Amino acid sequence: MSGEDVKSKTIFLVEDNKADIRLIQEVLKNSILPHQVITARDGVDAMAYLNQEGEYKDALRPDLILLDLNLPRKDGREVLAEIKTDPKLRRIPVIVLTTSSNEEDIYHSYDLHVNCYITKSRNLSQLFQIVKIIEDFWLSVVTLPLE
């Protein structure tokens, strides 16, 4: 690995389910890659963080966004649309990680230029594997944009 590959990554997890947040954090905690996980529990807070508004004025720009679609206050579909139409945010890779396997959600997400759509498993070991694959691919293999 070269020096630039070792830069700490910021993962922005937008998820309202506490159990899923804990599991994803637990999987990533065992990573050998330097990173930090920032969470938002609803779409309004997610957009405030990404736009560095209010209490988030010093927020770090995430290297990767894990986004649930079914969020309180502002739906994940709206969040995705806002991210992908904002010139300052649209290059941040967004992975939809949701329980929805609805074809309309899948097509709509890709129409909005989501980078990846993954249907969350309710099986804990499968969800663990999914998060591990995301980590291995998106944080080790992929070259992420700096801005």
UniProtKB/TrEMBL annotation:
CDD domains registered for this protein in UniProt: REC_Rcp-like
Alphabetical list of Pfam families matching this protein: Response_reg
Ranges of residues in domain Response regulatory: 10-135
Any GO BP annotation: phosphorelay signal transduction system
Residues annotated with 4-aspartylphosphate modification: D68
SMART domains: REC
Stretch forming the signal peptide: none
InterPro entries xref list: CheY-like_superfamily (IPR011006), Sig_transdc_resp-reg_receiver (IPR001789), TCS_response_regulator (IPR052893)
Keywords assigned by UniProt, alphabetized: Phosphoprotein
Record protein name field: Response regulator
